[in-house]
Amino acid sequence: MQETTRKTRRPSLPEGRRDAMRKLAAGAAGALASGAAFRADAIAPLAVPAWTREPGAPLLSPAYGVPSSFEGDVIRRTARAPAMPGSGSSMTPLADLFGTLTPNGLVYERHHAGVPKIDPDQHRLVIHGLVREPRIFSMDDLVRLPSESHVYFLECSGNTRTEWKGPSGLPVQLTHGLLSCCEWTGVRLSTLLDEVGIDPSAQWLLAEGADGAAMTRSLPLDRIMERALVVYAQNGERLRAENGYPVRLIVPGFEGNTNIKWLRRLKLVREPEMTREETSKYTNLLPDGRARQFVFEMDAKSVIARPSAGHRLKERGYHAISGYAWSGRGRIRSVDVSTDGGKSWRAARLTSAVHDRALTPFEADWQWDGGPANLQSRATDETGYVQPTREALVAARGVNSEYHYNGIQNWRVDESGEVRNA
Ligand SMILES: Nc1nc2c(c(=O)[nH]1)N[C@H]1C(S)=C(S)[C@@H](COP(=O)(O)O)O[C@H]1N2
Ligand SMILES: [Mo]
Known about the structure:
Blueprint (H helix, E strand, L loop, with lengths): L14 H13 L60 E3 L18 E3 L12 E6 L5 E4 H6 L3 E8 L16 H5 L2 E10 H8 L7 E6 L6 E5 H4 L4 E6 L2 E2 L9 E3 L12 E7 L14 E2 L5 E2 L8 E6 L10 E10 L5 E7 L7 E2 L1 E2 L9 E9 L4 E9 L8 H8 L12 E4 L5 E2 L2
Parallel strand pairs: 3-12
Antiparallel strand pairs: 1-2, 3-4, 5-6, 6-9, 7-8, 7-12, 9-10, 9-11, 13-14, 15-16, 16-20, 17-18, 17-21, 19-20, 21-22, 22-23
The structure holds ligand MTE and molybdenum atom.
């Protein structure tokens, strides 16, 4: 695992932050470790390394770019071996990412029957049921229609299920990594439905995938019409095979499962179809034996990614605490950070443009005094909903649910600087 120690090289900071840092540095016992580097006379000329003395690798090596060979640890990982070949999930390395977007090669994967190899020229999407004129769309038909691009997170409803019964000890990639955020490009669902003309009696939409699982979910039309997209591109290029190539449904803010990949069929119906994925699976069992069904929106949630479990603070003094907040109900309004296990809170900075239903990176300044600390973050969304503590969540829902865990996450720092999920 990487360490979060600050290097002596320091990025230039915006004025506001520089002031904040100066105040912090002045007030704290241990000033910034690299303060001495400001003395010009102490700086020796830099050595000229081998890579500065000769030309580098030629163009097109490789023709489709890949990350630096020094970044080989930044990969998707699985928490456990899949039950069947092709099923299972891989998780996004949140502690090694920056900003809002997840690079395509690191978007988490959840497959119920593997990744189908679909020829886009042969693929078809049918829209039928309660419509004036059923239609079959080829990929060319879809790409010719008016398009839009939007940044939305995608979170599996099983994300962070490891923490229902208490701290799991796992690192953030394996607790919160069923989470990604992409700019999605495609056609509005409403544009497609205008093409076929829907009957007013249609209240729900059944979406079906072309994979071996033929995943099917029923969706309430009035709640998805405004935002749902039928997309063929993510982060500027065609969908990756594992994320639904050549076409998938994006239902912003809804649990990952409803975002049907490899989309082949949309059927307009009066009532939900009660498929396997909304009866036996993807329901949430309460302590009294009743189950919550059709829990679609992902509740507001946040997590600190740096520092987090598996990291080690090498020096006292300044450390930025950074992470992500998101809500299935709209924009993030604010994020609070605590370093004393939730006794006191202060506001974090939101460090990117705040998009509707997107990952919103946050950051807070922290001077580590070398003592034990408990780092936590708490998101509030634009509806005023505040991310609950684990205790409050368990009091309301019990521990029978597998899905929709959004409790406040604690990372414990001990005197050695070791960070743990405890
Ligand atoms: N056709 C189909 N769609 C699917 C799935 C699947 O297995 N088959 N998995 C679902 C689940 S459970 C999730 S969390 C998301 C994962 O999307 P991703 O793999 O692009 O991250 O896709 C959903 N759509
Ligand atoms: Mo999922």
